[in-house]
Amino acid sequence: MLTNDLITPIPEISESRRKIVRLHEVCKYYGQDDTLVKALDNVSFVIKQGEYCAIMGASGSGKSTCMNIIGCLDSTTSGHYFLDEEDVSGMEEKDLAKVRNLKIGFVFQQYHLLPQLSALENVMLPMAYANVRPKEQKERATAALERVAMGHRLNNRPNQMSGGQQQRVAIARAIVNNPVMLLADEPTGALDSHTTAEVIELFGELNDSGITVVMVTHEADVARNTQRIIWFRDGQIMNDYLSPSDLNHVI
Questions:
Q1: CB 70 within 8 Å of CB 21
Q2: CATH code assigned at 231
Q3: Which ranges does the record mark as transmembrane (predicted)?
Q4: Which of 21, 76, 112, 243 is the most exposed place for a label (fewest CB within 10 A)?
Q5: In this predicted structure, what is the pLDDT of residue 130?
Q6: pLDDT per residue as tens digits for the range 113-157
Q7: Can you tell me the distance from the alpha carbon of 2 to that of 190, in angstroms, rounded to the nearest whole number?
Q8: What is the pLDDT of residue 32?
Q9: What domain range is 164 assigned to?
Q10: Confidence of residue 173 (pLDDT cuts 50, 70, 90)
């Protein structure tokens, strides 16, 4: 942990809130012997319901590996990962796929919208995999698009929208199944500064409504809009309760 008298401690979220993310002594290793790489080395932290966190660190620090484990896209070498108080560490891929679809909403730097589908159809996709009735799919997808101010673009395809509009559609798709966590990987990396500000404001509004948001970013200006920063270095956590106002002390 960083020890710096200038760093402002952040009060922990109430104990009454359930733990959405809990990593306990998680390790992720690649290779062996002389080629062993410790991407994550004995990592433990908790993110509770309603928090808005950024995961930061230099290239190779472990933040992307951590995101993949939190998103159930990769498995641990050792240790345990509890998602919404359920140990998912040893789950088979078919079960992890179900968990990803129902409990995690993903937002990526590249929007990953299907070009042949309209905004409405793209947002309906996660519900199709969850066996939601077609009529309900349309109703919920429309409501999600309206929530991100894209209700006027229901029938537009991705090539008929700006980058910021495509990202809003991607966010609507991420929240349409009412996940326990919104996991964003460099969500503003492909956007200009004005559009970045709009998208970050949207994340803040979603968090204000009660959605737990975890954002992986290398941009300090983006991280300063969150409530708390988890700082990685060389596969380990240097500080898991860093105040955004104190970023200058560690960058």
A1: yes
A2: 3.40.50.300
A3: none
A4: 112
A5: 87
A6: 999 999 999 999 999 888 899 999 999 999 999 999 999 999 999
A7: 31
A8: 87
A9: 52-69+93-249
A10: very high
**Residue whose token pair is 């008929």:** 160
In a domain, 84, yes or no: no
The identity of residue 78, as a single letter, is: S
Which residues contact residue 59 at a Cβ distance below 8 angstroms, ignoring those fewer than 6 apart?
Answer: 218
Does 199 reside within a domain? yes
